[in-house]
Amino acid sequence: MSRPLILEDFASRVGDTFAIREQGLEAFPLTLTEAKPLRATWPGAAARPPFSLIFVGSNPCILPQRLYKFDLDGIGLVDIFLVPVGKDTKGVSYQAVFN
């Protein structure tokens, strides 16, 4: 990918399911449940406005915090750093923050 990911890449895709594509890991589907802008901590310093994504996976296995490869339609293969942030009856939630 030749450009940084931006909020607009995801904002219209809330509710869509994305799959992690990692060697040695069975396809792991995650549903995007939230895409929201974040407040910049200092003006003009960022290459892009900061934003946050929340994904939910129905698989009860909790993925460790690290970079994962996603194959995003229209964008290609990208690395996204996921952090598990919760677990409830809907599944395991993961957050990705871009700043």
Total helix count?
Answer: 0
Question: Unreliable stretches, pLDDT < 50, 5 or more residues?
Answer: none
Share of helix, binned: under 10%
Gap between N and C termini? 17 Å
Task: Tell how many strands the DSSP assignment holds.
Answer: 6
Structural description of this entry:
By secondary structure, the chain is mostly beta strands. Strands 1-2-3-6-5-4 form a six-stranded antiparallel beta sheet, with no helix packed on it. The protein is globular. It has no helices and six strands. The protein has one domain (7-98). The protein has strands at residues 17-20, 28-37, 51-57, 66-72, 76-88, 91-98. The two termini are 17 Å apart. 0% of the residues lie in helices and 49% in strands. Strand 1 and strand 2 form a beta hairpin.
